[in-house]
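thread from #wetlab-drylab

HS: before we spend reagent money on co-crystallization trials with iron/sulfur cluster, can we at least see a predicted complex? here's what I'd submit
DV: go for it
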Amino acid sequence: MPRLSTPRVERRRRFRAKLVRWFRRHGRDLPWRRTRDPYRVLVSEMMLQQTQVGRVVDFYARFLGQFPTIEALAAAPPARVREAWAGLGYYRRAADLHRLARVVTADHGGAIPADPDVLVRLPGVGPYTAGAVASFAYERAAPAVDTNVARVLRRAFHPRAAGAAGDRRLRDTAAGFVRRSGPSAWTFNQALMELGALVCTARVARCGSCPVRRECVTGMRDRGER
Ligand code: SF4
């Protein structure tokens, strides 16, 4: 049976295609984008919570130099982990990451789980981080909706989304874009995040230079088309 193609489906197909094309040209070359190692991906995600990319890059390399594996981190005394985190702030993240390393080595044989439903039960891991690790380390078809991604999806598809119901809607939309596991799930989630970091930012929506402005409700309004 032929696949149904409605204007909504078509718009989302174009949104995805243009976003991915833009990301391939303009996405930043960040160290955690060069790896699928679950431990490295997890460390980057914990560090990126509440800290800018530019600051994380140096800390990330230094931290992994000191704790190159999850076993090394699990075996370290808490004071050493805290010391390695010094300067990044929000030390709670370091304590959570350390506890997580101990749980994963004790209960999961040192293998960071791939299933978001299992990941989310680990210390310091919320729905976003669970989706990000599943997608960025294992290329699973999992949505990864942080504040950047939520903002893009809200502006692009659901400008009136608010509250818990709005959050669910955004998450469902994000999930609809990543139905199949594999490199395309990784790329789409990275691309959406990158658009929110570089173009559709909290401070300003640069609709005039946005690759998906023709597929975005806010972008269309900006051009007087709605
Ligand atoms: S067109 Fe504007 S509002 Fe829409 S995603 Fe691009 S920058 Fe954001």
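DV: The chain has a mean pLDDT of 94.
HS: ok that's useful, forwarding to the group
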